[in-house]
Amino acid sequence: MKVLFTLCFIFLYFKGYQGQKGSRKDATLSLASSYGDHMVLQKAPAFPGIWGYSSNIGDVITVQLLNTKILQQIQTTVRMGPEGKGVWKVLLSPVGAGGPYSIKIYNSEGDIITINDVLFGDVWVCSGQSNMQFTVAGVYNATAEIADAASFPDIRVFTVAMETATVPQYDFISVEEPWSVASPASVGHGNWTYFSAVCWLYGKYLHQKLNYPIGLVASDWGGTPIETWSSTDALQKCGLTEDSNTDTDEQVNAVPTGHSLLWNAMIHPFLNYTIYGAIWYQGEANAGNPSLYNCTFPAMIDDWRVKFSENKVQTSGNFPFGFVQLAADRDDATISTGFPGIRWSQTASYGMVPNPTMKNVFMAVAMDLPDYKSPFGSVHPRDKQTVATRLTLSGLAVAYSIPEKFQGPFPSNVAFDEQNTKLIITYDMGQTVITTRSQNGFEFCCSASTDVSVCETASLTSWFPVTSLTSSSTTVTLNVPTSCSNQQMHMLRYAWRESPCPYKQCAVYSVVNELPGPPFKMMLSK
Ligand SMILES: *[C@@H]1O[C@H](CO)[C@@H](O)[C@H](O)[C@H]1NC(C)=O
Ligand SMILES: *[C@@H]1O[C@H](CO)[C@@H](O)[C@H](O)[C@H]1NC(C)=O
Ligand SMILES: *[C@@H]1O[C@H](CO)[C@@H](O)[C@H](O)[C@H]1NC(C)=O
Ligand SMILES: *[C@@H]1O[C@H](CO)[C@@H](O)[C@H](O)[C@H]1NC(C)=O
């Protein structure tokens, strides 16, 4: 024993001496930028990954998980990483929710890193454009929301800095807000800085239901299209190989649009960090091409799942993915292109999620939350509480299998009466409530010809609003507009406007949880 100790001592001394002869600084052990004090690691059954750097290839790195005693000890060797540096990575064995723990990491040269106040819980990534970047400081009742953050020390937040890269990065170029305990300062820093309101409120409502730690990682950038958050593999699936926006010298502060620039810099570096799921609020920047989004959105979700799960015991290859269906924007009842098409594409043209193309995907409908007077512009509604409440309900149901009524009413069947003067829509997913507004949002497309393409133009001339309807708890009966009698009836659609109704005043809601029926369009056959 004594001999071993002495040998060890000599070995350490020798290595230390060698290090000093070379560059002692290079030998220093360090962590990847996504790890630090106050972090939340993914709880059991997943294996959380921890990695970092050390220059001595072949050296042994020891990682210990501790509370009052050593609970786990794992050793690994330093190898040459794809980034051309010495790297090491360990997987901790699964740990149940709770904490705090500390993690001690050391090499054979006596370098030690201690990570303090580590919790185990669920880690969610929150991404997208400005409505995800929109911070708690900007929501309604911001003062009260910020003060309330002090009550949730088991929620931890992390904000990735806005950076771009033309090739996948292995580590974040910089971090805006390192892992921080939720507090008025860490959650209410300022408008457009940190912390993301939808991410925070979603995490807070989840925590209130689950009662264990939640780690929230915000990685978002206002104005950005989906192509910049997608890897080249995802884009290829949709035929996007040439980047028409290849502008590698994008100006400082310009909104990045080039293919994969933010995937490379703001998502790829996080792949080694075991996560539970992701939420997404994006699509406004793709409103010019909704049919492409029908491919690019499901393809990005699938690709993130593949890339995050390359190591099978870390993140699930079918991890839950939630999104916010685009909210209302301008106060103009005539706009029927752009956002309605994106909302439809956000569901891969099914109208609702989950569906066969988008499994384990959940959403919050937000089209009925206009905020035309928002000081941040009407495209940034301030009621993120309702958005997060709806997203949490669907997340609890889909991502946690907790029974909740999480979907607004969606048609299961439509049928004309014998005279073709009424169309009966059956909603059998729960009870329906119909408000008594004259503008109910249902429209028929009809024309004298059999050509259905008249329904797909931006013009509203072939679309006729339903002026009266009746309803029961599971059906809505539409009186066919008189302009459509003796015409070819092609299509029916609902809430197909950028801003379909006043605040919380669309036509169809569920009784339980007051969830709006999502917008839809369908072909009609008599
Ligand atoms: C994951 O960890 C390895 C070390 O095992 C490191 O070389 C690599 O850069 C990390 N990958 C990413 C995508 O960060
Ligand atoms: C955020 O913006 C709102 C609306 O302009 C303003 O009232 C508020 O003071 C701002 N908050 C901070 C922290 O700057
Ligand atoms: C959208 O994608 C789904 C599934 O991938 C497909 O069934 C549907 O036809 C597509 N819709 C359009 C309008 O391309
Ligand atoms: C803001 O607070 C008031 C008073 O508590 C409440 O009635 C209202 O619903 C809150 N608004 C939001 C969006 O949460």
Helix content: 10-25%
In total, the number of strands is: 25
Give the total of domains.
3
Superfamily (CATH H level) name of the largest domain: SGNH hydrolase
Shape from CA axes? Answer: elongated
Just name the CATH architecture of the largest domain: 3-Layer(aba) Sandwich
Broad structural category: alpha+beta
- Percent range for β-strand residues: 25-35%
The oligomerization state is single chain
Number of helices: 11
Mean pLDDT across residues: 92
Low confidence ranges? 1-26
At the fold tier of CATH, the topology name of the largest domain is Rossmann fold
Bound molecules: 2-acetamido-2-deoxy-beta-D-glucopyranose
The CATH class of the largest domain is Alpha Beta
Largest sheet: 11 strands, mixed
Q: What is the radius of gyration computed over CA atoms, rounded to a whole number of angstroms?
A: 26 Å
Span of the ends, CA to CA:
90 Å
